[in-house]
Write a structure and sequence with these properties.
The structure is a homodimer of 191-residue chains. With 191 residues, chain A is α+β, with helices and mostly antiparallel strands. In chain A, strands 1, 2, 3, 4, 5 and 6 form a six-stranded antiparallel sheet that branches. In chain A, helix 8 packs across helix 9. Chain A is elongated, with a radius of gyration of 18 Å. At the A-B interface, helix 3 and helix 5 of A face helix 3 and helix 5 of B. The structure holds a DNA duplex (30 and 30 nucleotides).
Chain lengths: 191, 191
DNA sequence: CGATTTTTTGAATCATATCAACGTACGTGG
DNA sequence: CCACGTACGTTGATATGATTCAAAAAATCG
């Protein structure tokens, strides 16, 4: 059981023993969350890091009455309000469900226990490094590309999401208003 | 020797033994870099993660002929083009010296050797986590605050830097042109 | 189908960029 | 120690890109 998760762990740290992964299994719990519900709510402490088995979830925060989406996650991705999870302090962002989701939770206390194994330390390190790299690229993109360039980029490497995420959420992810994204698309289609 | 560095390591991982830190010392080398020179150049692989003993350095990248500063680092900070260091691939950003610097290098291969110790795995994990948190906050700030708010924030929690970093570099860090930052300052001074 | 949500369009406005000019400070060589 | 050159900061005028608000059109859902 939890095959996809074992694969994920072994890809980052091949040295994981069957016994170590069995230890992990004992910590995991499955949760089904319907569309529209929250996985984590701003202001609450994020208690789990969760693997997405099915569905589509989104991380976002609120800035003067408006949602700003910061990420979309599908089957095979891990999700958490990571800063909140790491520090066990209230989350600045929320995570909600766009398509009925099945997620597999790993709690904070269990994670700490697993860190007794060096392989889990290494896993935790590599996860944090990957998240850093992801965020670093997003940061660079926001600073050095125009909205249109960011949208084009999204078409190329996240085209599966474009069909599933409403355009007004993509707009905030790209950093523009829905109206402006609509105009960008119109302009692009004229070529 | 390398007292400040030992302190840095033990603050993140109190369990470090004297022997483990002595092992670290054998990997460290000091480098003096004068103002105007590069620590890492875009396109080259970042071979070291470096502790700043003295001086002031800056990370930046180039976007259509212009520099965009992404961070300023002083004594007590660690620097690297971290994605390049982690993946040993060419750096997207450069690091240069704004005030004559003394830095202490730790090479990639040595870092890998140290990861044999679980305590160094834990250290590496915590560093990556801190960097993630730092970047996450910067990201949020860029998306949800106005340039003026970002400048005010900078005054509050990096006021020491304002004296040492030329204003046009701060401008790109904040995400505006030098002219516009000048106007923001003028407007702020009218209150 | 009707009701609601999402996307598009238009017009006015605002924030920031650009370009060009000028002022000021600073460090260096004479 | 002065004068000059270079780098930095400021100011003004204009241009551009993105937002806002309002409304219509299109898509989605029960």
């Amino acid at each position: 059981m939890f095959k996809a998760i074992h694969k994920y762990y072994r890809e980052l740290v091949p040295a994981f023993s069957d016994q170590e992964l069995a230890e992990l299994d004992r910590c995991l719990t499955i949760r089904h969350i319907p569309k529209g519900q929250y996985v984590v709510r701003e202001g609450q402490v994020c208690r789990f890091v969760s693997f997405v088995n099915k569905g589509l979830v989104r991380e976002f925060y609120s800035a003067d009455q408006k949602d700003v989406s910061v990420g979309f996650f599908v089957a095979g991705d891990y999700i958490a309000e990571y800063e909140s999870f790491l520090t066990q302090t209230p989350a600045a962002a929320s995570i909600d469900v766009l398509e009925d989701a099945e997620i597999v939770d790993l709690g904070f206390a269990d994670m700490q226990r697993l860190y007794a194994y060096p392989n889990y330390q290494e896993f935790g390190r590599k996860i944090a490094e990957l998240l850093f790299i992801y965020l670093n690229r997003r940061n660079t993109a926001l600073l050095s590309f125009t909205p249109e360039e960011r949208y084009r980029k999204m078409i190329v490497d996240q085209h599966e999401l474009l069909q599933r995420v409403p355009q007004y959420m993509l707009a905030s992810f790209i950093g523009v208003t829905p109206e402006h994204l609509s105009r960008i698309r119109k302009k692009m289609s004229r070529n």
